[in-house]
Amino acid sequence: MSAVHSQLALTALRSLEVHSRMLPLDAQMNECVELLQSPEIVVNDLFHSITQVADESASSTKYSVHSSPEDRKQGFFYPYREIFVQGDACSFTCLATEVEFLGKDELNSAIEQREPRPIDYAAVTCESAPFPVLGFVQSADSESAYPLLLRAISTLVELIRPGRIEMLDQEVYRGMLGGVPKVDLAVVLWDDERDDDPRRPLCELSRDLAEVFKQTLVSATDFPPILNDIVCLRMNPKRSDARLRFVWRI
Question: What are phi and psi of 89, to 5 degrees?
């Protein structure tokens, strides 16, 4: 559990994400199918999470955004790198990586622990009317699209905590976001070459689950209209050619 979660209770949706990460792939498959067969389960968790975050509005915690240094150029994503998406005719520029919202007392502890950040990269599309992209990237062979999608939606819900959008706008996007921005959530998977890879069906099931999440959030009257699209992309973790491959968009 990260330092910030030690002070703020896990939302219902974040708890589901944490739970899903501990499951083997076949159990993830069963759980994802169950949620699609009974979508009211995950919809209830989603609405409960929104209520939990809204109830924290009186919190006096002051946040700052911690991200990787601007001069760090390692791995696939790093600040100011332009990434091209094959099959979607678009590109984006990374502005920050390993983005975490931290209170002042939690900053040093989280840096020392080097735990995974809720947002792996924050980017902006390269077009005449650019919009923000928040990316969530696979980090292990056994990781599937299912917990990545849950992490993305959990992080989106938690963005409505007091001051978070403003802080992200100020410290990462330099005023580009405005008060109620629309953002893309990008789930980035590693390439798989085997037709029998158990993560493949989870990718398609996660697409259906993403549709449930989007339809629910778009129609929700107590959640701000900050979600644009949910996108699934693929990358080759062994190459650094600045190219991703489009899989699906909801």
Answer: 50, 45
pLDDT surpasses 50 at 115? no
SS3 annotation, 193-212: CCCCCCHHHHHHHHHHHHHH
For 29, phi then psi, to 5°, come to: -60, -50
Whether 17 and 150 have beta carbons less than 8 Å apart is answered as: yes
Nearest to 93 by CA among 148, 133, 128, 152: 133
pLDDT tens sequence across 184-222: 999 999 987 566 777 889 999 999 999 999 999 999 998
For 244, the domain range is 3-249
CA angle 43, 47, 53 (to 5 degrees): 145
Length of the chain (residues)? 250
Contact present, 62 and 103 (Cβ < 8 Å): yes
The model's pTM? 0.88
Per-residue pLDDT of 124-151, as tens digits, reads 998 877 889 999 999 888 889 999 999 9
Rg of the chain on CA atoms, in Å: 17
Mean pLDDT, the chain, whole residue set: 84
How many helical (H) and strand (E) elements, i.e. helices and strands, does the chain have? 8, 8
Domain count for the chain: 1
**Cα angle for residues 16, 20, 24 (degrees, 5° grid):** 165
